[in-house]
Amino acid sequence: MAIVVRIDVELARRKMSVGEFAERVGLTPANVAVLKNGRAKAVRFSTLEAMCRVLECQPGDLLEFVDEKEPADTRAVPGHT
């Protein structure tokens, strides 16, 4: 899939557990796992809004487009030049 979910990165930055995140967003921990593991087929805007509100971030902090046609070793790595 060309969309990579970065929820785990944002949770780690805030030292927030999946359980706490799930409760505050209004999701089950199982549904958070589906999102984190990239198995979700869609995300409602209301859910994305709740995740951003809880994590105090922007949608782009949680979702990243990765061009699958581009070789992995040439992709830009965030924070590296």
From TrEMBL:
PROSITE patterns: HTH_CROC1. Pfam families: HTH_26. Residues 13-62 form the HTH cro/C1-type domain. GO terms for molecular function: DNA binding. PANTHER family: DNA-BINDING PROTEIN, DNA-BINDING PROTEIN-RELATED. This is Transcriptional regulator. It comes from Pseudonocardia sulfidoxydans NBRC 16205. The lineage of its organism: Bacteria, Bacillati, Actinomycetota, Actinomycetes, Pseudonocardiales.
